[in-house]
Design the sequence.
């Protein structure tokens, strides 16, 4: 089974020595689709974020093109409609359901996911980390 996903690496450098991980850069623009998903256009890649349901979110990154939603080896569920509220602020975007909040920092682009109690499920907790693709 070939893994076609791109890694989100929590390093702090633009390029990590001995790897081919690179920072995806700043969020340049984005589009919200009818289903509540977000397509982000970054300086060095593309991001798609969508909810399978209120407590399952999928983050996809691709350095060359918009990520195409296809089946996932990690998820056996098919996407359903989740009520997603999107709030834009100057420096970040929030995507909220009743169970999760996705925090999208614009400059540099970073992703943090918290649960209903504010606990970080994904992302750096104490210091900034780079969102990278491989």
Sequence:
């Amino acid at each position: 089974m070939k893994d076609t996903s791109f890694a989100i690496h929590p390093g702090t450098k633009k390029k990590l020595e001995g790897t081919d991980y690179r920072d995806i850069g700043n969020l340049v623009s984005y589009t919200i689709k009818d289903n509540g998903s977000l397509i982000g256009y970054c300086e060095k890649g593309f991001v798609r974020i969508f909810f399978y349901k209120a407590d399952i979110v999928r983050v996809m990154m691709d350095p060359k093109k918009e990520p195409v939603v296809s089946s996932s080896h990690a998820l056996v569920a098919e996407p359903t409609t989740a009520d997603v509220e999107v709030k834009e602020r100057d420096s970040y975007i929030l995507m909220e359901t009743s169970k999760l909040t996705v925090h999208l920092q614009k400059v540099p682009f970073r992703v943090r996911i918290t649960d209903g109690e504010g606990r970080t499920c994904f992302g750096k907790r104490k210091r900034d980390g780079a969102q990278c693709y491989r």
